[in-house]
């Protein structure tokens, strides 16, 4: 299907586990044109985007680490998928800078910007909104989780409700084939001693990372939550030595975790996010299990009627962690048109129109 619209000019920002799928997605959409590619690795400079994305063909766009050269292309949008978990404030400065230059941004992080109300980032949000008011550029942060599986999907389901008592969104996954050593070892603490002070288990960090999910669902339901979100986590050691894609997990080191963030109204739980993260499917059999395969997402709406949806995915030639990267990338790519058309400033998922895979039906 050919698009009658002039394609939007897009720069892809990174070629990592998400970025290479974003490049493929931009190339697949007839309403988008890849015009530039940023890389942090100097060894990738000068290589063709198609090769870096494992497409097996050239796209005619060469990677660069020259930011000014990319800004000079005057792109309509940047699809930003660079790692932000270990450089949050540097990443925030990058994103603000893009918007201040009048470029729309669709990013996979920092996840606190999926719904920044109450995150303490008002200074950055104010700069983004001020720039957007002046030049019309927008910023949208999303993905699959935090993102579609626990903001758009549950809010769409509540459109069928007559009464809502509680909304619970869950990720239940085996992370053994997930390759992100920094995330797995330093943020989660997998493979580390049980007393290792991993970042996620420090007070307030879960609220910073996944609190925006809880607050966005509440905002979509017109709920005023109690000021402080509740956090919990339960970690267990691995019973056996494991080798996973990101690291070694010796017996006795951290092997699995169940954690969550809960939003209450007058002390009553109303919106809850749960994660069950294993490094082997046999761990913690008493914890919630995926509906099928090695993992997926679950949305439960308690009330009238009672509803539950299990959302599973897997790659055509890979496992659920491969498809997790694809779904994250494509949520960004497929939102480019809607974000470019949105009012300037921070744009959150609940305020965007329906986003579809327009133009992606196999030809």
Automatic annotation (TrEMBL):
Residues 150-356 form the 2,4-diaminopentanoate dehydrogenase C-terminal domain. GO terms for molecular function: kinase activity. It comes from the Bacteria. Transmembrane segments: none annotated. Coiled coil: none annotated. Keywords: Kinase, Transferase. SUPFAM superfamilies: NAD(P)-binding Rossmann-fold domains. InterPro entries: DAP_DH_C, NAD(P)-bd_dom_sf. This is Diacylglycerol kinase. It comes from Nocardioides marmorisolisilvae.
């Amino acid at each position: 299907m050919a698009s009658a619209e002039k394609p939007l000019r897009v720069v892809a920002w990174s070629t990592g586990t998400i970025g290479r799928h974003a490049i493929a997605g931009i190339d697949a959409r007839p309403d988008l044109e890849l015009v530039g590619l940023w890389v942090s690795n100097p060894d990738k400079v000068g290589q063709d985007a198609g090769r870096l994305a494992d497409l097996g063909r050239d796209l005619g766009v060469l990677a660069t680490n020259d930011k000014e050269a990319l800004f000079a292309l005057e792109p309509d949008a940047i699809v930003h998928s660079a790692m932000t978990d270990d450089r949050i404030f540097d990443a925030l400065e990058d994103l603000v800078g893009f918007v201040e230059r009048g470029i729309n941004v669709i990013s996979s992080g920092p996840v606190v910007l999926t719904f920044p109300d109450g995150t303490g980032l008002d200074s950055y949000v104010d700069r983004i909104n001020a720039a957007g008011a002046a030049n019309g550029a927008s910023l949208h942060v999303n993905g699959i989780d935090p993102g579609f599986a626990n903001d758009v999907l549950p809010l769409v389901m509540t459109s069928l409700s007559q009464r809502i008592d509680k909304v619970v969104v869950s990720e239940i996954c085996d992370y053994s084939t997930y390759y992100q050593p920094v995330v797995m070892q330093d943020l989660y603490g997998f493979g580390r001693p049980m007393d290792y002070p991993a970042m996620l288990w420090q007070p307030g960090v879960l609220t910073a990372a996944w609190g925006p999910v809880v607050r966005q669902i509440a905002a979509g339901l017109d709920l005023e939550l109690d000021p402080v979100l509740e956090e919990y986590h339960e970690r267990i050691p691995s019973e056996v030595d494991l080798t996973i894609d990101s690291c070694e997990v010796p017996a006795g080191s951290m092997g699995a975790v169940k954690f969550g963030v809960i939003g209450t109204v007058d002390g009553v739980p109303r919106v809850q996010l749960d994660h069950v993260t294993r490094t082997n499917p046999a761990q913690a059999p008493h914890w919630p299990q995926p509906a099928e395969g090695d993992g997926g997402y679950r949305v439960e709406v308690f009330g009238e009627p009672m509803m539950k949806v299990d959302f599973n995915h897997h790659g055509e030639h890979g496992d659920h962690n491969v498809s997790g990267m694809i779904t994250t990338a494509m949520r960004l790519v497929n939102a480019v048109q809607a974000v470019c058309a949105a009012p300037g400033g921070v744009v959150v998922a609940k305020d965007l129109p329906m986003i579809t895979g327009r133009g992606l039906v196999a030809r």
